[in-house]
C-alpha cells in the first residue's frame, strides 16, 4: 500500500473510496454533451459535470473538480452509478446514497458528497432547459 493510500485510510476513507480517488474514475470531459454544469460549494471547491442522455437515460457521465479527495471520490462514485439511470432516478440521489456508493468517507468530508449531488442536479436542470 502506498503512503497516500495509508494516509487516506487513516483519515477514514474506505478502500472503495480510495480506489475511486486513485483511479480517477470518470474524470475528464465530454467534448459534446447534452448537459453540463459547474458548481462551487460553500467550502470553495468546484465541480463540473458533463452528461450524455438518450431517451431520458444517462449514457455517459464525466466530471472535473478543483477539490479534495472527498470531491474526487464522490464525483467518481456518483458518475459511475448514474450511467444507465433515468434522469428522474439520478435526480433523487442524496448524500446518504453517495456515501453508500463510497462505502465510507471521513465525517468531516460528508459535505463533499453534497458538491457532487448539487452539480449533478444542476446538470440535469441544464438538460431540461435545453430541451424546452
Ligand atoms: Fe470542498 Fe471536499 S472540502 S468538496
Describe the structure.
With 132 residues, the chain is of the alpha+beta class. It has one domain: Alpha-Beta Complex (Sufe protein. Chain: A). Helices cover 50% and strands 19% of the residues. Strands 1-2-3 form a three-stranded antiparallel sheet, covered by helices on one side. A hairpin with a 2-residue loop joins β2 and β3. The chain is elongated. The mean pLDDT is 96.
Keywords, please?
single chain, 132 residues, alpha+beta, Sufe protein. Chain: A, 6 helices, elongated, binds FE2/S2 (inorganic) cluster
Short note summarizing the structure:
The chain is an alpha+beta fold and about 130 residues long. It has a single domain (about 5-130), classed as Alpha-Beta Complex (Sufe protein. Chain: A), CATH 3.90.1010.10. It is built from 6 helices and 3 strands; from the N terminus they run ααβββαααα.
Named once each, the bound ligands are: FE2/S2 (inorganic) cluster
As a whole number of angstroms, the C-alpha radius of gyration is 14 Å
Spatial arrangement of strands, main beta sheet? 1-2-3
Q: Which segments are poorly predicted (pLDDT under 50) over 5 or more consecutive residues?
A: none
Number of domains: 1
Indicate the CATH topology: Sufe protein. Chain: A
Assembly category:
single chain
SSE string = HHEEEHHHH
Q: What is the helix content?
A: 40-55%
Question: How many beta-strand runs?
Answer: 3
Give the DSSP E fraction (strand runs of 2 or more residues): 15-25%
- Give the N-to-C terminal Cα separation: 50 Å
The CATH architecture comes to: Alpha-Beta Complex
Under CATH at level 1, the class stands as: Alpha Beta
- How can the largest sheet be summarized? 3 strands, antiparallel
Overall average residue pLDDT: 96
Class derived from helix and strand content: alpha+beta
Shape: elongated
Helix tally equals 6
